[in-house]
Design brief:
3 strands; mainly alpha; about 70% helix; about 100 residues; 5 helices; Arc Repressor Mutant, subunit A; three-stranded antiparallel beta sheet
Length: about 100
């Protein structure tokens, strides 16, 4: 359990993994490997490694028929949690700057 939690928390410091989650959220029907490589301007092996990491966590799955990567229910919940944390941090920053 500690390993899975540690891996999940790594998402907060991994721009490629976060970008993949964001793209799969935006493209609800999913994206193919080729589309991910075209959109994300990073080395293909880095993208593939990140997708495999997300699959191991159970956040991303690959549809059998069209070979498209999609967010799982857990992936959607994790993405929403990350967005919520981002919103909370931004609100805290805004309150702090207004207090000055």
């Amino acid at each position: 359990m500690a390993k899975k939690l540690s891996d999940t928390l790594k998402l907060f410091t991994a721009p490629t993994k976060l970008e993949i989650l964001m793209l799969l959220w935006e493209y609800g029907d999913g994206l193919s490997r080729k589309e991910l490589h075209r959109i994300i301007k990073r080395h293909p092996s880095m993208i593939d490694h990140s997708v495999q990491f997300l699959k191991r966590l159970g956040l991303v799955d690959c549809t059998k028929k069209l070979r498209r990567y999609v967010l799982t229910d857990s992936g959607r919940r994790v993405f929403l949690a990350i967005k919520y944390i981002e919103e909370c941090v931004n609100n805290a920053k805004n309150k702090k700057s207004k207090a000055r």
